[in-house]
Fold Spore maturation protein A.
Amino acid sequence: MINYIWFVMIFFGVAYGLFTGQGEVMSKGITESALSTTNLIIGLLGIMCFWCGIMKVAEKSGLTDILAKILRPILRKLFKGAGKDDKALGAIVMNITANMLGLSNAATPFGIKAMEEMDRMNRKKGIASNDMALFLVINAASIQLLPSTIISIRASVGSSNPAAIILPAILSTTVAAIVGITVCKTIEKYF
C-alpha cells in the first residue's frame, strides 16, 4: 500500500512540475540531492570505519568483556527464563554491550541469536515470551554510552562539536530504558 502512496506522490509531483514548466528546476534539484547524498555517504563511510576501528580496539583490549561482566548479574535478575540459560544470556549481553558502544551493525546478529535462543525456550511458539518482549524494549531503548553513529553523522555534515551529543544521549537513553523496563515488568504481572 505504501508503495502506491509513494508512486502517486512522486507521479503527481513530477507531473505538476512538468505542467508548470519547472522541469529544469526539478532536474537540477534531483542532481544536487543525489550529489549531496553521495557526499554524505562517503563522509559517513570514513567516519564509521574510524569508529569501528576504535570499537575493535575496545573489544581487543577487553573493554567489552568488562562491560559484559558488569551487565551479566543485572540481566540475570531482569530475564527470568533467559537468565538461567547461558547461551541466551550470552547473546543478550553481547547485543546490549554492542548497542551501548554504538555498534548497531555488530549488535544485530547477537540480537537475532538472542531471540532464537529465547524462542527455543519458549513454551508458546509464535507468541513472544515476557523475556522476548523485555529484550525488544531494552534493545529499542538501547542505552548509548558512545553513540558513534550519531557522532559520525554530525561530523559528516560539518558539526563544530559532533561529540556534544554524548551526555544527552546517555541521559535520554538511560531514562528510556528505565521507563521501558518498568512498564514491561509492570505489564508482565498482569499478562
